[in-house]
Design goal:
By secondary structure, the protein is mainly α. Helices cover 83% and strands 0% of the residues. The protein starts with a helix and ends with a helix.
Length: 188
């Protein structure tokens, strides 16, 4: 809720999709609190919708002219997340396809941020890269906590995940504001 207020104050143009993404994030955080397979499943579905909106927003702000850098930048993230997925035996049956889709989305998000940064290094793409790397670390920590180190260091991983989540959303909020101002300046 705090990010919605910050965004509403700092943004000249209120993007309804971004506000929806922030609300979906809030719902996701609530669904991830209980540690049950059903809540995890619903949380991942809501987060998937959120991630699709976020990627759409990035594509609307970052005009991709060449898809080769995007593919090259996405590949390492695909390798990491699918390696983790393949090594995990305790994924609930009803979550397998949605987690595969989540791995594709986070890899695309990170690849888009990384390729944008290398193709056009400026404040906007730097903040996007920082946000993407924080989201990657968040997904990695949550995956390790939920499937590899269950009941080990749970408080540490939960605290780390909450920290990454807050920082990732704060930096993405900053990215959206910078991107909106940059796009407004181009149109003026």
């Amino acid at each position: 809720m705090v990010l919605i207020v910050i965004y509403s104050i700092e943004s000249d143009k209120k993007n309804v999709l971004f506000i929806a993404a922030l609300l979906l994030s809030l719902i996701t955080n609530i669904l991830f609190v209980p540690n049950t397979p059903n809540y995890l499943f619903y949380g991942v579905i809501v987060f998937t919708i959120h991630r699709i909106i976020v990627i759409y927003l990035i594509f609307s702000f970052q005009k991709v002219k060449d898809f080769i850098p995007l593919i090259l930048a996405t590949a390492p993230f695909l390798l990491i997340f699918f390696y983790l997925f393949i090594e995990t035996v305790e994924i609930p049956q009803n979550s397998i396809f949605i987690i595969i889709f989540q791995n594709l989305l986070i890899s695309l998000f990170a690849g888009l941020a990384l390729s944008s940064y290398f193709m056009n290094d400026n404040k906007q793409t730097t903040v996007l890269l920082i946000s993407a790397l924080l989201f990657v670390m968040l997904q990695f920590v949550v995956f390790v906590e939920r499937y590899f180190l269950v009941n080990e260091f749970e408080k540490l991983f939960r605290t780390l995940a909450m920290t990454f989540n807050a920082l990732a959303f704060f930096s993405f909020n900053k990215y959206v504001i910078i991107a909106e101002k940059s796009n407004n300046n181009r149109l003026s």
